[in-house]
Design goal:
By secondary structure, this protein is mainly alpha-helical. The chain has 2 domains: 11-152, no CATH class; 168-278, no CATH class. It has 10 helices and 6 strands, in the order H-H-H-E-E-H-H-E-E-H-E-E-H-H-H-H. The chain has helices at residues 11-19, 25-33, 35-50, 69-80, 86-93, 136-142, 192-204, 207-252, 257-266, 269-273; strands at residues 62-63, 67-68, 111-114, 131-134, 168-173, 179-184. The chain is elongated.
């Protein structure tokens, strides 16, 4: 979960930019009539997002009884993804550092996710603060999710900042081959709501499965090096190396799956002694 700078583009300006290329005069006139409604909806959304109250926003059938849900979805697809609003789309896509999805912190950004689905909140279909750059898998995992309680609100990169406290942890499953299990453990100083939201986000996006898969590949990659270290310096050398790797990764991101994995490996006496030798060799 990575914080992003909140978009500064005004919702009404972005909406009218998308509307500007609509050729149907009657449709364009109806869009123009609801500009103030779009701005009002964006203001309510921002207030709710700031106070962890997105679950209180009522589902919409249309925009002010003037513009339909389908017309707003078409405006997004035809005028923002492809049309005049594409400049805003591209600007939002560039927000994450190194193009990494802020929802999973691992995969590459490939789309914009409507934090509140446009099918339920058509007035927010082209509102920048409701459009979050994300990877395709995170976007699909959220689908048409609408929070029913404060605890069910997934992380919002523009409004949420859980700081640099460590909340993602892992442990080593002592098996052959060894595996790594990831889980959320909220810091003691966190409000209960933060912990519940982190748990919900982790489960909704199936991050445990994603990180465990990546950890399995990383274990295969480091097997040879750990075997060499063990021969040269024994268990102490293996543990020292894994600890250094954990520290390096934690300085970059305390809640990356790599940080959690290396912390777990370095503190597992079983793994450092000979558990690593149970990692399958390449091609086996």
């Amino acid at each position: 979960m990575r914080k992003l700078s909140k978009p500064s583009d005004l919702p009404g300006v972005v909406f009218m930019l998308c509307v500007s290329s609509v050729r149907d005069k009657l449709l364009k006139a109806r869009f123009t009539r609801v500009k103030s409604d779009i701005e009002a909806a964006a203001a309510k959304y921002e207030m709710a997002a700031t106070t962890t109250a997105l679950h209180t926003l009522p589902v919409e059938k249309d925009v002010a009884g003037v513009v339909t849900k389908d017309e707003m979805e078409s405006l997004y697809k035809g005028r923002m993804v492809k049309g005049q609003g594409r400049v805003i789309y591209d600007k939002l896509m560039m927000l994450p550092a190194n193009g990494i999805c802020p929802l999973c912190g691992h995969r590459t950004v490939s789309t914009l996710d409507h934090h509140l689905p446009k099918a339920m909140f058509p007035s927010l279909a082209v509102t920048p603060i409701n459009l979050v750059p994300a990877c395709g898998d995170c976007n699909k995992a959220k689908l048409e999710e609408r929070p029913a309680t404060p605890q069910e609100q997934t992380f919002h990169p523009y409004f949420d900042d859980f700081g640099r406290d460590r909340w993602l942890h892992a442990d080593v499953v002592q098996d052959s081959p060894p595996t790594v299990r990831f889980f959320v453990q909220p810091p003691a100083n966190w409000p209960p709501l933060w912990g519940a939201r982190a748990q919900h986000h982790f489960a909704t996006l199936k991050l445990g499965v994603l990180y465990a898969s990546q950890a399995g590949q990383e274990l295969a990659n480091i097997r040879h090096h750990l075997m060499t270290l063990s021969v040269l310096g024994g268990t102490a050398a293996v543990q020292k190396h894994l600890t250094e790797q954990a520290i390096s990764r934690e300085l970059a991101n305390p809640n990356s799956w790599q940080t959690a994995m290396y912390r777990a490996l370095s503190t597992s006496a079983w793994f450092c002694a000979d558990g690593f030798a149970k990692i399958p060799q390449a091609g086996s």
